[in-house]
Amino acid sequence: MKIGCHCGASIIDQTDELPHKGHLIPDQAWFSTNDAIDDEVIDPVADGRLGKEEAYHLARRIIGRSARLMWQCRACGRLYVDSRDGQLRCFVPEGEPADREVLRGGQRPAEPGAAPDTAG
User: Are residues 30 and 57 in the same domain?
Assistant: First the structure.
């Protein structure tokens, strides 16, 4: 998939583990998604009614039902979100410099002057 950003850059989505791609679960769906995982996956696994492989697939399906995709332009920081009506919606960041790594996973950078995190 290729998204043409309003700034002229291209957002490419052709693989997994992209630092500029995310999955959005609205707050209104957050608890029902977790409850569905509890009811449809965790409880049946604990009771021996569902196998491990089936549980993996079912949990991913449950999460996928609630999530919408989103991408960030690494050139300008705009966010593009799949809306409920299937349209791609653009959101423009305010302030300079724009944070171009909103969707990047991993740890946040340490505060200046903070002691390094040695927990492991």
Answer: yes
Bond prior to 112 in cis (omega within 30° of 0): no
- Residue 117 located in a structural domain: no
CA atoms 55, 56, 58, 62: torsion sign = positive
**91 strand-pairing partners:** 79
Mean pLDDT, rounded, for 109-120: 55
Q: Which of 51-60, 75-84, 98-107 has the lowest mean pLDDT?
A: 98-107
Indicate whether 110 belongs to any domain.
no
The span from the CA of 103 to the CA of 73, in Å, is 10
CA distance 78 to 7: 9
